[in-house]
Design brief:
By secondary structure, the chain is α+β, with helices and mostly antiparallel strands. The protein folds into two domains: about 120 residues, Fumarylacetoacetase, N-terminal domain (SH3 type barrels, Roll), CATH 2.30.30.230; about 300 residues, Fumarylacetoacetate hydrolase, domain 2 (Alpha-Beta Complex), CATH 3.90.850.10. It contains ten helices and 26 strands. The strands form seven sheets. Strands 6, 7, 8, 13, 14, 16, 17 and 22 form an eight-stranded mixed beta sheet that branches. It has a five-stranded antiparallel beta sheet with strand order 4-3-2-1-5, with no helix packed on it. It has a five-stranded mixed beta sheet with strand order 9-26-25-20-21. Helix 1 packs across helix 3. Bound molecules: calcium ion. Calcium ion (CA) binds next to loops.
């Protein structure tokens, strides 16, 4: 399967004998089957699973039920991270998905007893970082975000001349990536506002989140063999939500000339669920149309099929709950809703560009999309944009105000895919709370 063809696993009529998977609006209907890594007790070894309704299916506990190409893929799920599965040929992962879909489908209840032991309530499990991440690259693929953010840092030239010619990125720090739920500590750093005559060192005051989609590399690419745009999806295992925590005051002082460094490397939060490229097939759309007059990408970044099917229709949402809202039992407030279908560069173009100089991508590498902002005022994926660089405070329903994040604030990202005639799927949650800077 090449990640755009639909098969029996996408059938909208498919239902599961796991009742909660059939509830309208669930993130994990049988058409999704996202992978995760969990444990029941802190002393347990981590285990690989798929999500189905409000349950996890512990694949390592039922490997005897899988055969053919799916058997080695099921055996790879006995590891404590998804990497052993991700390294396999995409056809093996697709075969595992097809057999999981059959085993869990209504009308296929003869294995229900065998599988019952392997089903764990998600609420009884601790969800862990699902992948051993060797490399982390963060792109900047939303032209709306690039323009909005660029305006804050460089009012005279928001979009730099290279933006429309190549997918801009920086090399991030893989060991900063942590699973949803782990708290994030406000970093210290060197700070210098425009009016200051000299920098000082102290806790960052302009702490922000960034709404992103993360891509996990499955099959590795080969050194010195650039991946073409047309072949890029063969290396895509799946996607998670990603929050690239950013200290804007550290960033504005340090970012020139080599890009962000300590403003970003203190923490990145990812959702624990990896939604596979296969599951996203019904939500592939054409790449966002470039405005008339924009340059055509160079040939190594262009593929006609990718322009037709290389976009993803995923709606990402950022939610904020302050400490006071939590104490008062108020639900989180939604700050933005933006779509990955507006990205200026496709994920295949990012993969092709990443490998175009002969460097290669390894299994488990994580590529961030960059902040996903849309054209509207309600589609801004960071507080930098919402507060216009801190100049326009946002008033929350309980009267509290924010320009940037306060200690105790909890930021949650969610993502959903919907398409006419399809069963919608979701990404679960990517959430973390901000702790005060270390004394
Ligand atoms: Ca970012």
């Amino acid at each position: 399967m090449n990640a755009i063809e639909l098969d029996a696993t996408h059938d909208p009529a498919l239902r599961s004998w796991v009742g909660s998977a059939n509830v309208e609006g669930t993130d994990f209907p049988i058409q999704n089957l996202p992978f995760a890594v969990f444990r029941r007790h802190p002393s347990d070894a981590p285990r690989c699973a798929v999500g189905i309704g409000d349950r996890l299916l512990d694949i390592g506990m039922c490997i005897e039920l899988f055969d053919g190409a799916a058997a080695p893929a099921a055996r790879a799920c006995r590891a404590s991270a998804l990497n052993d599965l991700m390294v396999l040929d995409p056809s093996a992962v697709s075969a595992l998905r097809a057999q999981l879909s059959r085993l869990l489908s209504a009308g296929h209840e003869r294995d229900r007893a065998a599988l019952g032991e392997a089903l764990v309530r998600i609420s009884d499990a601790e969800l862990l970082l699902p992948v051993k991440i060797g490399g982390f690259t963060d792109f900047f693929a939303s032209i709306h975000h690039a323009t909005n953010a660029g305006r804050m840092f460089r009012p005279d030239m928001p979009l730099l001349p290279n933006y429309k010619h190549l997918p801009i990125a920086y090399n991030g720090r893989a060991n900063s990536v942590r699973a949803s739920g782990a708290m994030v500590r406000r970093p210290h750093g060197q700070l210098k506002a425009a009016a200051d005559t000299a920098p000082r060192h102290g806790p960052a005051q302009r702490l922000d989140y960034e709404v992103e989609l993360g891509l996990y590399i499955g099959a590795a690419s080969t050194p010195d063999q650039p991946v073409t745009v047309g072949d890029a999806w063969r290396h895509v295992f799946g996607f998670s939500l990603l929050n690239d925590w950013s200290a804007r005051d550290i960033q504005s002082w340090e970012y020139q000339p080599l890009g962000p460094f300590l403003a970003k490397s203190f923490a990145t939060t990812v959702s624990p669920w990896v939604v596979t490229a296969d599951a996203l097939a019904p939500f592939r759309v054409s790449a966002a149309e470039r405005p008339v007059g924009d340059p055509s990408p160079l040939p190594y970044l262009h593929d006609a099929r990718d322009q037709l099917h290389g976009g993803l229709r995923i709606t990402l949402e950022a939610r904020l709950r302050t400490q006071r809202m939590a104490a008062e039992g108020t639900p989180p407030v939604t700050l933005s809703r933006s779509g990955t279908d507006t990205l200026y560069w496709t994920f295949a173009q990012m993969v092709a560009h990443h490998t175009s100089n002969g460097s290669w991508l390894d299994t488990g590498d994580l590529l961030g999309s960059g902040t996903v902002s849309g054209p509207g005022a309600d589609a801004l994926g960071s507080l930098l944009e919402i507060s216009e660089g801190g100049s326009k405070p946002l008033t929350l329903p309980n009267g509290e105000q924010r320009t940037f994040l306060a200690d105790g604030d909890e930021v949650t990202l969610v993502g959903r895919c919907e398409a006419p005639g399809r069963v919608g799927i979701g990404f679960g949650e990517c959430t973390a709370r901000l702790l005060a800077a270390a004394g």
